[in-house]
Each structure stands twice: as C-alpha cells, then as structure tokens.
Design brief:
By secondary structure, the chain is an alpha/beta fold. It has helices at 26-34, 43-49, 68-73, 79-82, 99-108, 112-115, 140-143, 149-155, 172-177, 189-201, 213-221, 226-245, 275-278, 300-311, 324-327, 332-336, 357-360, 371-374, and strands at residues 57-63, 89-92, 121-124, 127-130, 160-164, 182-185, 206-211, 250-256, 261-262, 268-270, 281-287, 290-295, 315-319, 339-343, 348-350, 364-365, 375-380.
Length: 382
C-alpha cells in the first residue's frame, strides 16, 4: 500500500494513518485476487481488505455517496447488505471527500495532489471549471496525467469494461479516472446489472459498475429522506439480482467514494455577504464543505488570518504549504489556491457570486474530513 504522511494537527478530523488502507488500495487488492503479477496488483492490499485470491474475474461496484456510516445505519432497508454486515470493512477515502477526487484516486491509485482532481470545481482561466465535466477545459489526460489502472492493464492485453450511463462516456471524470477501459452504456439499474452480467459471462476479466443515484438523491433531498431511502432500497434489490446471476469464479468487491451529511442552513456562510471573508479574495472554488480560496495578489497572509478569525472552530483551514500532507505531493495544491477550508459540524462555506442558488441550497453535502464523509465501506460479495 502507498505511503501516506498525514501529520497535520487537525483535532476531530478522521484521517487515515500511514499504514491504513484507503480507496486507492481497492483495485490493487481486487486485481491480486486474479493474478498478483498484474499491473497494479497488491497482495498486501488484498490481505488488508480481506480479499482472497483464486478468482478468475473481478467485478468492482462503486456506489457514489453511500459511505460506511450511512450503510451501517440503514441496513434495515438493505437485506442483501445486511446479510454480509459482519464482513463490511471501514476504510478511508481521500481528501477532499468528493466524487472527482475520490473516483480518480480509485482509478489511478494516486492522491489528488498528483492527479489535479482536487474538488468539484477549480479555477480555470478567469472562471471556474467543473471537474466532473471539464467542459471548455483541457483534455482529461492533459489535466490528469497519472495512468489509470485500466490503461496499465490494457497495455498488458487485459480487457476491462466500465458499465455506466451513456452520458458519462465522454465526461471529464471518465477520461480522467477510467480511461483505458471499454465503456458499456447502461442507464437504469436493471440495464447496468444486465450489462455487467453479459460482460462477465463473455469472459471480461475486469468489470466496473458505477451507481450514482444514491448520491444524487442525497444532494437533492437529503440523507435519510424518503427519496434517498427509496434509492438505497432499489440499489440493494438490484444488487441481489446481480449476485444471483453471477457466473462462477467472479470475485465481487463493493465500495463507495465518500459519505454525505445533511447541512444546516443557519451554518452556511456566504463569502459574498461576509466582508471579513470577502476582502482580499479573488475567487472561491471547490465546494461547500471543501472550499478553495484564491487570494488577491499579495493578500494571502491577511486573508488567512481573517478567515481563521471569522470561522474559528467551524472549519479546519489548511494553508498551501500544508496541503501536500492531506492531498499528496504534486501540482494539486497550486490548483486549490491559498487555502483549503474544510467545514466542521454541519456547516459550509459558499460564494453566491460564483455558485448557483440550487447548489447552495443542496441539503446533502460532502467534501470534508468528518468520519461520516471520510469513511467508506469495502465488502467482498462473491
């Protein structure tokens, strides 16, 4: 497993220790179940995650937004997962705990400092670029230079398939995190289950199935809302169908990219309406629970002092020089800017000058370093 040096003094933050497994270890562990000599395979990671050798194929399932604490708290709605509850392990995602960063870490084994996938949005040119889409930006392979596991496997003649909605085929995130695999378009859960089973029955060695609807529902309606519970129940039912249809010799590994919390409206701070935060700031990017602060030229130290005083115990504030300890070495820290502001409790930082009203109003959010956001499940299902 890769070495991690998270040495910052951040009381209350749930960060992995140097030897703790993280999302970057899931694919290496799963590959070792097929052949420990495959590119990226790690028998050490497999032992840490309890993934046994002897498989002929692997099926990787990533459920967006369904963190470990959320999964364990809602097993009453998931009979399939409840049947393996004693086997569900808790590991960490990466910082920031958000989709673009985490899925790219999953797909490459590298932390955001190296991949440049450092949040929902980043400063690009005179405005912001959404890293899920990268519309109007550079080619994904130019922005994110680290080879993916699928590229490395493909170079050795190992066929890999990614099963996800058709609209994701050309997205920035797919190009950054999953390039090198064949994209198999499938929109509904039933279609994705069928597509994954077809690939496995046809002998595809590595199949990845992505499910984003729980995350979408959490953003739109909140965690534990009726809509969110409905998506959790639907996924569990589809998972049961999938497991019943698997051919022999398939090792199925399920994980997530991050968790999610419901924020409190009264705890959201708008930079545009807060002079102490607005003064000296050129632009704010990132997302509500993991804001990127870019100070005006020559104002970084003054901005940091004002933000620390204004936010107090409501946020962990990380300066640029400290960022590599959280996100890894590389150019990612310069993309984040002068400060990374990680919210505590159920608050957040927004900027109504650049964020839409609908984004600011989302009840379910992630990105910070609380246990609910950072802890993700890993469980072997077959």
């Amino acid at each position: 497993m890769s070495e991690r040096a998270m040495t910052l003094d951040m009381p209350g933050a749930d960060l992995p220790g140097a030897a703790d497994p993280t999302i970057t270890d899931v694919i290496p562990a799963a590959l070792a179940a097929i052949d420990p000599t495959l590119p990226g395979a790690s028998a050490k990671a497999a032992r840490a995650l309890g993934i046994e050798a002897g498989a002929g194929q692997i099926l990787l399932i990533l459920v967006d937004g369904f963190g470990y604490e959320l999964m364990m708290d809602h097993l009453g709605h998931t009979p399939t997962l409840r049947s393996v509850r004693t086997d569900i392990r808790s590991i960490h995602t990466i910082v920031p705990s958000t989709t673009s960063a985490a899925i790219t870490a999953f797909g490459t084994g590298a932390r955001p400092g190296a991949t440049n996938m450092v949040g929902f949005s980043v400063v690009y040119g005179d405005g912001l670029m959404n890293l899920l889409a990268m519309e109007g930006g550079p080619a994904p392979a130019q922005w994110q230079p680290v080879p993916t596991y699928f590229e490395r496997l493909g170079a050795q003649g190992v066929d890999c398939a990614v099963v996800s909605p058709a609209r994701f085929a050309g997205s920035g995130l797919t190009g950054a995190a999953l390039r090198g695999a064949r994209h198999v378009p499938a929109d509904t859960l039933e279609q994705r289950v069928s597509a994954a089973l077809r690939e496995l029955r046809a002998g595809t060695p590595v199949v990845y199935l992505y499910w984003s609807e729980i995350d979408h529902s959490g953003h739109s309606h909140g965690v534990a809302s009726d809509a969110w519970i409905g998506q959790v129940e639907q996924f569990d039912a589809g998972l049961s169908t999938l497991l019943r249809g698997l051919p022999g010799g398939v090792r199925t590994v399920l994980t997530a990219d991050h968790g999610m919390i419901n924020v409190e409206r009264d705890s959201i701070v708008d930079v545009a309406a807060t002079p102490a935060l607005r003064e000296g700031v050129r632009i704010v990017a990132g997302e509500t629970r993991a804001a990127h602060v870019h100070a005006q030229e020559g104002c970084a130290s003054e901005v940091e002092a004002r933000w620390r005083e204004a936010l107090g115990e409501s946020a962990w504030i990380v300066s640029r020089s400290q960022m590599p300890a959280l996100i890894g070495e590389g150019s990612g820290a310069s993309i984040i800017g002068d400060l990374l502001v990680l919210s505590r409790g159920r608050g957040g930082v927004v900027d109504s000058r650049t964020q839409s009203a609908s984004a600011i109003a989302m009840p379910g959010i992630h990105g910070s370093v609380t246990s609910t956001e950072m802890r993700i499940p890993v469980v072997t299902l077959s």
